[in-house]
Amino acid sequence: MDSPNSWPDQEKQGEQQPNEFPILNDNDHDLESSDHVPPLPSPLQHEEVTRHTLATEPFQPILKVLADLERDNPKFALPAARLVGLYRRLWESCVSKYIDVQKIDQSNEILKEAGMESSRVRLTSLLDDWNYPYCPNLAGLTDVAREDAREITPHAKQVIYSGGF
User: Fold this and answer.
1) What is residue 39's DSSP assignment?
2) For burial by CB atoms within 10 Å, which of 6, 70, 124, 130 has the most?
3) Into how many domains does the chain fold?
4) Structural domain boundaries, residue 21
5) Phi, psi (degrees; rounded to nearest 5) at 138
6) pLDDT tens sequence across 80-92
């Protein structure tokens, strides 16, 4: 009989711990607004606050229901609390992975933009190299190609047209 009584007490402590998380969050917020304490680096702090909020906020109503259930019927409170605890661990791992995927997607987007800019610069320089002083537009390129074709030897033409580079 002592062990069933100890389980609800342990579960009660487990319920109190999640309720302490928002208090810690509020204290962190108070420290952030204080002029005397230097704040943590912004991206790291923002990530931790986001992880904490996404992991604990959805469970606040459930924790209140578990507290009421423990008061009304402690026999059912323990199995329910275990189930909620397992689900909460699963949820926290999903939140963690979600945030990591968001960071990776953001990094990939930055890399894509950098790659596009690099390609644009290379194409621009290539097109600038192709611009001849005597052919200001693309229509003039066909004239240049004709002039170049006249300078090619008959043997070279045969190789080119036969596809035997």
Assistant:
1) P
2) 70
3) 2
4) 2-106
5) -70, -25
6) 999 999 999 999 8
